[in-house]
Specification:
Helix content is about 65%, strand content about 0%. It has helices spanning about 10-35, 40-45, 55-60, 65-85, 90-105, 130-140, 150-160, 160-165. It has eight helices and no strands. The protein starts with 8 loop residues before the first helix and ends with a helix. It is globular and about 45 Å long.
Length: about 170
């Protein structure tokens, strides 16, 4: 695949703003969870529907696993967000964000007849905000900007091995 390294000013601005907005969303969600000592994903996991509900209920059924799931969720959100905002390890951050969103979607799919304790903010049929944000992240993955505006621009020069590993 040939990667185009030049964008118009409007394209670059739009892509960087998209990266910043999604990064802010992830970082803020993580920070709010970290700063709230009583936050837990337990009710969310127990409310899961769909073909993976047994998996999510299994996670919720083990207290040690719940502690790990909570910590991983909180810190992954924060670190992914910071990676997207700063443009550091943005490819890794983007893929991590897509994986998290896939788990969120699979635990609460917007299928006909699915009823959840916490109602959605709107009326969805198959495509919800998680899938929309995942699609936006796919665009960021296909049109990277961190090598132009972001710390990846400097990291790939300072640590060439990171470029070879395709983490940026």
């Amino acid at each position: 695949m040939i990667q185009k390294d030049s964008y118009t000013s409007a394209q670059l601005t739009a892509m960087v703003v998209l990266r910043l907005f999604i990064g802010w969303h992830f970082a803020y969600e993580g920070l709010v969870k970290i700063l709230n000592p009583s936050w837990t994903s337990l009710p969310y996991l127990l409310d899961s529907k769909g073909f993976m509900s047994d998996f999510f209920a299994g996670l919720a059924g083990d207290p040690a696993m719940m502690n790990m799931v909570n910590a991983l969720n909180e810190w992954a959100l924060l670190l992914i967000g910071l990676g997207l905002i700063t443009g550091a390890f943005s490819k890794l951050s983007t893929i991590g964000a897509m994986i998290l969103l896939a788990f969120y979607y699979l635990s609460h799919p917007s299928f006909i007849g699915a009823k959840y304790m916490m109602p959605f903010e709107g009326s969805y049929l198959w495509i919800d905000k998680n899938l929309v944000e995942m699609a936006a992240l796919a665009v960021l993955l296909a049109f990277p900007t961190s090598h132009i505006i972001g710390l990846d621009r400097y990291l790939k020069k300072a640590i060439p091995l990171l470029s070879k590993l395709k983490l940026m």
